[in-house]
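[agent] plan:
  1. take the single chain provided in the ticket
  2. run structure prediction with default settings
  3. attach structure tokens to the ticket
  4. add a short note for the reviewer (M.T.)
[agent] executing step 1
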Amino acid sequence: MSRPPLIALREARLQDGPAPLFDGVDLALEPRARAALVGRNGAGKSTLMRVLTGEVQLDTGERFLQPGLKSTHVPQEPEIQGDNLRDYACQGGAAAWEADAQLARFGLDPEKGCTGLSGGEIRRAALARAFAEAPDLLLLDEPTNHLDIFAIETLEEALLEMKGALLVVSHDRAFLGRVTNRTFWLAHRKVRVFDQGFAKFEAYAEQVEAEEAAAFQRLSKAIARETETFYRSITARRTRNEGRARQLAAMRQQKAALIRDSSKTMTLEMETGGLGGKRVIEAKGLSKRFGDKIIAEAFSLRVLRGDRLAVVGPNGAGKTTLVKMLLGELAPDAGEAILGTGLACAYLDQARAELRAEMTLWDALTPLGGDSVLVRGQPMHVAAFAKSFLFRESQLRQPVSTLSGGERNRLLLARALARPANLLVLDEPTNDLDMETLDLLEGLLADYDGTLILVSHDRDFIDRLATSTLALDGTGRAQECPGGWSDFLRQNPDFFTAARRESRTSPPPMVAKAPPAKRETAKLSYKDQRRLSEAEAEMEALPREIEGLESRLADPTLFQRDPKAFQTALDTLAEVRTRLARAEEDWLSLEEKRAALAG
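[agent] step 2 finished; step 3 output follows
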């Protein structure tokens, strides 16, 4: 006997400018349903979520909610406000003890303030609040963004224990495969229902797309036959067979709609930029710490041409710091990192620091000015290049701040892939990307004959690409082994025991307690706070200065034309890189100090 739905849409329609976004969407979620919502870039998944929550009103159609339904929505970019995390987690009506329990489950201190949180802390706080509310229906939009692997595992376990229904949008295949038992596929402005979890969806989707491609070919052939018959038929010409004309027009409209509804595909290509030497990086005895925090201790590693090294570990373990030491961008306390000859490096930064909110998409793609982008050695107009990454020409003059998370990531990929590089460093490249773009990126990287260093929490992405995995446990220990994430766990099952324990703090006993007395928090001195602000400003400005100097030195005629200017630029580049390394070291040290003072 089927159960009545908690929430349902019937014949839902919604216009998006001149074109319909949804045209007859039917969808229903019953108690205990665990559904993934998937679809191509721009299909309208996040908008459909907001239709279900009531934030967006349908043009026509019905939205049904079971009376008394309690639903909670965690959007892609949650806003955390309140005196502290306990206050925030209670804003949806949860009791303080339940808020404390869920915050602890996600490794957060309920008394921690709501300002200055990292992306991972914001995400974990929003999830903790959602579970504290114990909703009948939980809606999650890209919940694994900014979470490390162990926080994702905690989220998976919480969802499997949850009694309510779930609808989730995510690009993380491993996550969806574990937590879902149904899949909603948003395509061609409608929703297909696949009554199994995402683990079996992709085989189903391939079959459907093959059938649609065959049907499209049959339609094209039918239009060709009908067109020839119509125009060659003496009867049709003399009597103007209106019925046949209407039939032909309808077939053409159907074909045009199918073409229009087909999502445009990104074109990802990359030039290797020369082979370079066989040895790419050799690290010998690297050690680095910030206060009591050990990043690396007597760490050694060799990266050879063609290696695909995945760097994994909990948030805060020092993955990005280690990569910067390997690239020579950050000085170690001891040891050295030797870079190979002929290296051309492209770096996609996790912090997305290259993008300033006020710069336009045009500015971001043409940092040296002009209206062209140098792509694989050939100039290409910026509008054409942007179009190949699914940006409209009308977006070129919009500020970066108006772009979605996925669009910002695509923009950074566009910048990185335009440069010839035989060493590609990607720090959390999968955040906010839809699965289609991930598939394209994965295909590009699989065919890339340069060297890849990949920092990621996407287990499936790592398993598909990595030839070796380097793991940090957050205490200074590092271990490398062949293969991807799954291979590493099989060979080192106990390596992350402490990291898992720390990220999955046991919830406290569920008893009410009086709120703790507020205490006065120690702060940085004026001098330290001023240096922290200066370091942040330098970390934003100096990478742009470095990029400009590197572009100038890349001119092969500069040395011949003006040897003095060449040497000045070279000396300046070395000095600016040193300033950037010092700013990063000071910033990290002061942040550690501020955290320690906050207790």
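[agent] step 4 note for reviewer: The first strand starts at residue 7 and ends at 16.
[agent] ticket updated
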